Each structure stands twice: as structure tokens, then as C-alpha cells.
Amino acid sequence: MNLRELIKAVTDSIDSHTATDNDRVVLAQSASDIADMVGWAAGPIDPHHRAIEQIQALMERLRGVHEQLPNPAVAALHDALAELNRAIDRHDRDLEQGPVEGEDL
After folding, report:
1. pLDDT tens profile 66-79
2. Residue 105 and residue 73: Cα distance in Å, rounded?
3. Could you please report the per-residue DSSP string of 4-18?
């Protein structure tokens, strides 16, 4: 699953209101897997911050779902998306800054 597919799958799971806890756990694992691979990207992942904004919107929606009916699977998906957002932002900022002075690449 890539980032675009993950965003769509999470959106669909929220919109359908039929997502199971297992579905949410699988999506959380996918978000975590993608976050682990972010550092391998050769270039910026989200230079215009569109994905970050979409993920933040999904996190807000998940927060609302969790407030209505607290659920550990919803919380886990929210937290995995938050970590993915941080990883993307950190990766893209590091690329903007360039190599550290004295770093031998």
C-alpha cells in the first residue's frame, strides 16, 4: 500500500461506518510500515504539504469518532497516522536543509 492508497482506505473506512477494529489495526500497521520507509525516499514526499493536510484532517475525524465511542483501534490508527505525518515532515525538512556541514556524502 502506498501513501495515496492509505489515505483513501482510511477515508473510506471512516465514511463507511462499517470498519471493524481489525480493519483499523491493519490500516494502522500500513501507516506504520509507510512511516518506516519514508527515510528511503530519494526526494521529497510531500513538498506541497497536501498529504500532510489530508492526514491531519483524517486524524481530526478519527478523534471525533473516538470521542463518540472510545475505541483502542481508532486511537491506534490515529497515532499511527500522527507518526507517519511526523516522519514525512521530518524527511522533507531534512531534504530542504541539505547535508549537514562537514558531513561526508
Report:
1. 999 999 999 999 99
2. 41
3. HHHHHHHHHHHHHS-
